[in-house]
Amino acid sequence: xxxxxxxxxxxxxxxxxxxxxxxxxxxxxxxxxxxxxxxxxxxxxxxxxxxxxxxxxxxxxxxxxxxxxxxxxxxxxxxxxxxxxxxxxxxxxxxxxxxxxxxxxxxxxxxxxxxxxxxxxxxxxxxxxxxxxxxxxxxxxxxxxxxxxxxxxxxxxxxxxxxxxxxxxxxxxxxxxxxxxxxxxxxxxxxxxxxxxxxxxxxxxxxxxxxxxxxxxxxxxxxxxxxxxxxxxxxxxxxxxxxxxxxxxxxxxxxxxxxxxxxxxxxxxxxxxxxxxxxxxxxxxxxxxxxxxxxxxxxxxxxxxxxxxxxxxxxxxxxxxxxxxxxxxxxxxxxxxxxxxxxxxxxxxxxxxxxxxxxxxxxxxxxxxxxxxxxxxxxxxxxxxxxxxxxxxxxxxxxxxxxxxxxxxxxxxxxxxxxxxxxxxxxxxxxxxxxxxxxxxxxxxxxxxxxxxxxxxxxxxxxxxxxxxxxxxxxxxxxxxxxxxxxxxxxxxxxxxxxxxxxxxxxxxxxxxxxxxxxxxxxxxxxxxxxxxxxxxxxxxxxxxxxxxxxxxxxxxxxxxxxxxxxxxxxxxxxxxxxxxxxxxxxxxxxxxxxxxxxxxxxxxxxxxxxxxxxxxxxxxxxxxxxxxxxxxxxxxxxxxxxxxxxxxxxxxxxxxxxxxxxxxxxxxxxxxxxxxxxxxxxxxxxxxxxxxxxxxxxxxxxxxxxxxxxxxxxxxxxxxxxxxxxxxxxxxxxxxxxxxxxxxxxxxxxxxxxxxxxxxxxxxxxxxxxxxxxxxxxxxxxxxxxxxxxxxxxxxxxxxxxxxx
Length: 806
Description:
Strand order of the largest sheet: 2-20-8-1-7-5-6
Largest sheet: 7 strands, mixed
């Protein structure tokens, strides 16, 4: 009843949703992608490192993200970016599964000799084309906004490879456009106010820059760019992502670059940078609301950063000398002064962004250079020096030593062999990866991973003869352009991002952190793979057995959708071994005539048995047990009735867990107190629990008991079994029905130890049914091989048939 009312209210609300009508007017509803099923929204907060996100959460600059951790069962994970620690490399690994897609943000293209950067659209398209040959795009059926790569997405805008929202609105009639503006007037007013505030802050920042003696023209160009990138771009990408949610786009990846822009300018821990996070947090909140209240799909929302940033000082300010002149001096000293001067490309990312806002052309930095012209590309704390040297190692050693000891570069890397590098620091020369601790510091949180990743970064075809790093493990880190925050190298802050994911996300956490490839694999698993795990192998029975009881409400959600696959998605996220289901429809017209237990078991790749408690012609309604282990039905019967309410029943299955027998009984008791007590007494009698205990094997009783703790029915069950949910009760009250009462239970026999018990209350579990699942991890005792053979030999004689059993 309650879900049906909620569904009608939700549909009524959609009639007045500006986002829904905007989607209709721009033609989104005419697209072919409005399917149901799982979906994924990947929100990237560019350059927000782990250290800074924890500070922002503590200071309440990310209040909505904090609420996800506090109320939606999200967890904060360490995210290692890989090398180089730049967005193009991270998104190459995330979108295509290719590590070290570029040697740094800026480099010399070995194919045409140009000094370029990934903010050059032609260069970005060229790299993307190469990536598409090496891997499959994660976003092929989705959208890409404000990223480096459009990644062959169905819809993309403001990516480095593609700018603007022209395709989004090109079909709009002028009248429709006016209606879109009217419907979203609040958003436009909001954006105008935020832009005004941002402009005021930018002017204040500009004045401070003048007082500190900085370049007037250089400071002035950042005033409009900050407003455009920190507010307008954020609002446009958020609106586009909302429309995609309403359409039901399978995967959406959008990148908020406002924090990165401010952090480059004023430093990653600056008040300006952290103030920008409030607007990003609110945008995520609005996107979450549309995704969970209006969208046809059941979306997971992941929030992560590609990398972090280091607090840095520009080389010129730190040493009071110019880097190009110092490098030119060293080169002339060791190679002779007869060569042409070194061509230089060293500009900050924020400076290039400001230039791109004024021009949509593909800007080359130096034009085509001859193959033998020496050049230097310096972006952030990573530089590439192209000198076209021969293989004379002593010559290289001398230049590397001079770059460190005379120029002041903290770390210089260059090729030793196809699998090893030389690393020159002020303390000596080392071989990587063998001596990585001496180079990156023994306390680097990603030491071994960085040791592996640094090799392909330095040996990349577009890398220089020498790779210069401004990161210093024990001193002041420097950057080559003029900026106060930088990233790209192997520093622990610049490689240390975060990922905020639902706790049920199936992702490899064996190392204590994740990397972009892990996020990619988890996304593929969520969108394309089933949610099952292989049954435990022989000898693994000491691992906890996870049981779940779940009232499906006939798979009718609060949004009015009848979707067994949604419940399979929920169940699969928590990877139970045994699932007891109640209120299961089979062949009923109201739920589309589906065999719900069969469909859920099929998605999970498990076995199932169904018992019909109520049968009307070809329509059935009852309970089911699903298991990843072999099982057989022992008994499936109706329970006693003492009213004219719907019939109730119970099902007893015996499960073979690699030689261990486990008795599992699933039931759904009456709403009428007197009848419920009679049914509980029957279950606890000799024909059910008594007989199950007589097998001298573990006994588990699951179900929706429609009773409250400390009631007479509860006390009746407790006399013979133990409440497994007590472990969860110690951590907080379990409320499995509408978040207000505990009606669902798992009871176990003596000798079963409970490791953990919980009720996952996420937006999806609250939307899918009026009940949330109860999950219990337990440890049972092994059985001998003799007992197992005895059980197998007697398997047929004790089996009872059940209606519609599989």
